[in-house]
Amino acid sequence: MAKILGTSLQAADQVALLRTLGLLLQIGLTMFAADTFGLSLQMEPLVHVLVLEVLYLSLTLALRKPLFAKERGLFIALSLDTLFWISWLHFSGGATNAFISLLLLPIALAAVTLPIWAPWALTAISTLAYSLMIFTVPESPMQHHGMDMSSHYLGMWFNFVISALVMTTSVALITKRMRRQDAQLAYMREGQLRQEQLLALGTASAQMAHQLATPLSSLRLLLDEVKEDMSGTSITVVEMETALGRCEHTLAELRLATESIRDRRQRPQKIAELVDSLKQKTLLLMPQTELNWLFTCAPEQLAEQSILTDMSLTPAIMALIENAARASVETLGAPQVDISLDIVPSEDQIYLQIRDYGAGIAPSLLPQLGTLLIDSPKGLGVALLLSHASLERLGAELILANHPQGGTVAQIRFTILKDKAASLSPNIQAAGGVRS
């Protein structure tokens, strides 16, 4: 159940204060101001109503924090408040009571704190009760000094309906707009925090890449000298050269990716090319990983459909595959990863799903992974954060969820490029990017 606006203890106290003041007003008018305002009191039922309302209000005040934390609880409380107001008005003059407009108080609270259906429901209840009280007014109050008061009471009823409708529509819509703005501000603050973290990570990565360049060059020279001094071929030297070559290749790709992102070099890429690139990268960087590909689309679609890419897309997907392989190793003892790809031209969407066979992700961490750095036993989620940022920049969406049969599913949702956008020249793409 969604939390309502302002579910803090202070907000709950404010609502409780207004309801308490309403009860005190009823008691004060009944005991001390009935003659002043011409209230026609029926004391015996009024006493019963007030006693029940005091008990009910005491109970809801004691339980205000858990009760007001949910929409349903607050709506029930305001509905009962409305019924108590109707009962008090009925036994203190009905439609002739000068304080009939106090039925607007629960409607106002509902318009500010609850969804738009709640004030409409309370408006319907209050209007129906007011209408019944109009029809049950005795004949004597209808005649005052020889004047017909029916038109006056009808005007009061009409004024009440107009006031309730204005409150239900205007106040509720203004409150809804304010909630939307608060949600947008919260999203912007979260995005700003994410950008600050990404900037810090990017700065640190650039510094470390610059610092690694010199040691790698020195290692390459030393390795060449070792090879010259050796008479034969050593398996150790071959493995060292392979590992060093991988480091140099990764560093070169990092530089290219940095330049590509800085210059906004985005280009269309066929799905078939992306799949081949992922397969080659996996064989090169993670040869022990068992990838199970599942294509639920026609082979010709892979060669026809294109998506927007840059140098950061493949590393972003590879980071997800690496995380999935690591999670499967912890549970199965083998790096097994399932990758499924589905193309839905009718929706202009391409779905790439990466599933592991690990223990899954704690539900409390799912909303945070990929958007913020988190503190968990398995790390800070840096790879997911960078992957999410790279995909978001390309107009893609990353969704993480636990698989019903165990493990985690990372779904990437791409937008299919239109034919016109997919055929743009590289120069145009580098200048302004491609819009789908």
From TrEMBL:
Per its UniProt record, what Pfam families does this chain match?
HATPase_c
- Which organism is this protein's natural source? Shewanella vaxholmensis
Molecular function GO labels: kinase activity
User: What does the record give as EC number?
Assistant: 2.7.13.3
Q: Flavoprotein as a keyword?
A: no
Top-rank taxon? Bacteria
Q: Which InterPro entries match?
A: 2C_sensor_his_kinase, HATPase_C_sf, HATPase_dom, His_kinase_dom
- This protein is called histidine kinase
Every copy of the Histidine kinase domain together lies at 207-418
Mind telling me which PANTHER family this protein's record contains?
SENSOR PROTEIN CREC, SENSOR PROTEIN RSTB
PROSITE patterns under this entry?
HIS_KIN
Reaction catalysed by this chain? ATP + protein L-histidine = ADP + protein N-phospho-L-histidine
Membrane-crossing residue ranges in chain numbering: 16-34, 83-105, 117-137, 157-175
| UniProt keyword list | ATP-binding, Kinase, Membrane, Nucleotide-binding, Transferase, Transmembrane, Transmembrane helix
Which enzyme class?
A: transferase
